[in-house]
Amino acid sequence: MQLSSEASQRFARISAHLHSPNLQVRGFLGQPQLESALTGMDLVIIPAGVPRKPGMTRDDLFKINAGIVRTLCEGIAKCCPHAIVNLISNPVNSTVPIAAEVFKKAGTYDPKRLLGVTNLDVLRANTFVAEVLGIDPRDVDVPVVGGHSGVTILPLLSQVKPACTFTADEINYLTDRIQNGGTEVVEAKAGAGSATLSMAYGAAKFADACLRGLRGDAGIVECSFVASQVTELPFFASKVRLGRGGAEEVFPLGPLSEYERFGLEKAKKELVESIHKGISFIRK
After folding, report:
1. Catalytic position from the list 17, 19, 82, 148
2. Who's near 15: CB < 8 A, 6+ residues apart?
3. Alpha carbon of residue 67 to chain centroid
4. Cβ neighbours for 86, distance < 8 A, ≥ 6 positions apart
5. What does the pLDDT read at residue 3?
6. What is the model's pLDDT at position 6?
7. Known binder of ligand: residue 89?
8. Domain end point (choices 97, 117, 137)
9. How far apart are CA 63 and CA 68, in angstroms?
10. In which residues is substrate bound (predicted)?
């Protein structure tokens, strides 16, 4: 397997860390060891939960994954209340509000430190747009806003870098494929699983960005599902600037095309229900 330049550089950084005399690798098993695993952490990544299977929506995962996320966040609130939390467990549109409610009940909630990981949608968007443009995906940047399932995933194709234009057919094709990228993988695996390697790469890339922010590096911008005032919804995915405090700045959407404005209204209609479901799970 030949690694891309970016992957090779990331592998080199990981290798350097692995050979560091300060590195410690420890294993923990089950809820009895949860507090030992979490104590003193600066960054916690939560990928726990069951994967999606053919015919399942992310919402179908809610009942199982919601309880898992609640338990883990209760541990975080107790053992490392100031940690930055990267929440991957689906459905992100509901699990992030669940985590927020758990932290509020514990009196430890800092909205800047709770980040829903949606950058897999960006990676897919960059790849699919690059295929249409005939260029390297590493040279493409597509903002993807809204949420992390179906029509809540809204790629802003009018803001693609490098600047370009698409036909109406291309916009429809790209939007549909980006929104249903996860379903495409689930169906291709025919019941054997969901996106794994691509999600692992996205999670590692986002965690690396958060660590660089904690280190004090400047200019780190990623898309994430966070507490937001960008719309009337309490949570929304958009570009954020990462720093020592987590999501230190949430950027506005910028100018939208008519197609994107229509898509935004559809996304918000579904998002409000998903967010309410997460909040209600804890409050009930």
Report:
1. 148
2. none
3. 19
4. 43, 44, 45, 46, 115, 117, 203, 206, 207, 210
5. 44
6. 57
7. yes
8. 117
9. 9
10. 52, 58, 90, 124
* Domain-located, residue 281: no
Report d(CA 24, CA 240) in Å as an integer.
30
C-alpha–C-alpha distance, residues 234 and 98, integer Å: 12
Q: Is 58 annotated as a binding residue?
A: yes
- Residue 176: predicted pLDDT: 96
Q: Helix count (H) and strand count (E) of the chain?
A: 9, 8
Q: What is the pLDDT of residue 186?
A: 79
* Nearest-angstrom CA–CA distance, 91 and 109: 20
How many domains is the chain partitioned into structurally?
2
Q: Could you report the average pLDDT of every consecutive run of 10 residues in the chain (284 residues)?
A: 51 55 81 93 92 69 88 97 96 96 98 97 96 96 96 98 96 96 82 82 95 95 98 98 98 97 98 96 90
Distance (Å, whole) CA 83 – CA 245: 9
Closest CA to 121 of 83, 100, 163, 93: 93
Instruction: State the pLDDT at residue 197.
Output: 87
Per DSSP, the residues of 120-138 read HHHHHHHHHHHHHHTS-GG
Q: Looking at the chain, list the stretches that DSSP marks H as alpha helix, in order from N- to C-terminal side.
A: 5-18, 34-38, 62-79, 92-106, 119-133, 168-179, 181-188, 197-215, 258-283
Query: Is 163 found in the same domain as 234?
Result: yes
- Spatial separation of the C-alpha atoms in residues 85 and 76, rounded to whole Å: 9
Task: Please report, for residues 9, 207, 222, 243, 246, the alpha-carbon distance to residue 43 in angstroms, rounded to integers and kept in the order given.
Answer: 22, 8, 16, 12, 10
Please indicate if the annotation marks 124 as binding a ligand.
yes
**Was 20 annotated as part of a binding site?**
no
Is 86 annotated in a binding site? The answer is: no
Active site (annotated) includes residue 82:
no
Kindly state whether residue 283 falls inside one of the protein's structural domains.
Answer: no
Gap between the Cα atoms of 203 and 197, Å rounded:
10
pLDDT of residue 9: 61
